[in-house]
Write a structure and sequence with these properties.
Elements (H helix, E strand, L loop, with lengths): L1 E4 L5 E5 L2 E5 L21 E3 L5 H4 L2 H8 L2 E5 H8 L6 E4 L4 E4 L2 E7 L16 E7 L3 E4 L9 H7 L4 E5 L8 H10 L4 E5 L11 H10 L3 E3 L6 E3 L1
Parallel strand pairs: 3-4, 4-5, 5-6, 10-11, 11-12, 12-13
Antiparallel strand pairs: 1-2, 1-14, 2-3, 7-8, 8-9, 9-10
């Protein structure tokens, strides 16, 4: 499984040749100025919620690539009104079987509205079971005991967790979340993009080390293989 980080909470995962993009916010991210948006290819786009720093480039990429949108019902309807036809609406607790694996939509504690102020349902996270790995993409969320259910029901190989504080969990809470979902490998997201969510990388990595967890803070544009 190859994972490319495009900044904020945007990742492209290549799972057995199927490319899945999460929460595309690239063109508006000053830290991602070297990422060439028009060169990104994907088969599916998963949106955790409607805030602009998670959906800013979704319409462009959906139309350019012909990817299928997977999101909560209200967000799907908003994009259908913009001419997006390849969609799969979901809601919390539901799952769908797709060519790359099974996607379960799970609880996230966060607000959600679309860039024009339209109600966007509730925020969500995803648990993805593929042939290669099972992982938890938390979206924007506070620490919640619901995460323990994920650890009880799935063997999570790694978790993508927000660590920037202020709008979401901080690093300390994210490490507790990793314990709840029963994984030692965390890929940090939703950090450094704006002054509100800047973090001390050395301190974060040391905190994870002391708790015997592996925290990955990827560089924008970096690709790793897990």
């Amino acid at each position: 499984m190859k994972i490319t980080y495009y900044g904020q909470s945007c990742f492209l995962l290549d799972m057995g040749g199927t490319k899945v993009l999460f929460d595309p916010f690239i063109s508006g991210n000053p830290l991602a100025s070297d990422v060439k948006l028009d060169q990104i290819e994907c088969d599916y786009i998963l949106l955790s919620h409607g805030h602009a720093d998670h959906v800013a480039d979704a319409e462009y990429l959906l139309k350019k690539t012909g990817a299928t949108l997977v999101a909560i019902y209200e967000i799907v309807g908003w994009y259908q009104n913009k001419g997006i036809e390849k969609v799969h609406p979901m809601n919390i607790g539901g799952k769908v079987h797709l060519p790359f694996g099974t996607v379960k939509m799970v609880t996230a504690i966060h607000s959600s509205s679309l860039p024009d102020g339209t109600y966007a349902g509730v925020a969500a996270g995803f648990v993805v079971e593929s042939a290669e790995k099972t992982f938890y993409y938390a979206g924007d969320t506070a620490l919640t005991l619901d995460m323990k259910l994920i650890g009880e029901r799935y063997k999570v190989d790694f978790a993508m967790l927000p660590i920037g504080d202020n709008f979401t969990m901080d690093v300390e809470d994210a490490l507790v979340a990793a314990t709840y979902v029963n994984t030692k490998k965390v890929i940090g997201m939703h950090f450094d993009t704006f002054p509100y969510i800047e973090i001390d990388h050395v301190e974060a990595l040391e905190l994870a080390r002391r708790q015997q967890k592996e925290l990955l803070l990827l560089e924008i544009g970096q690709t790793i293989e897990l």
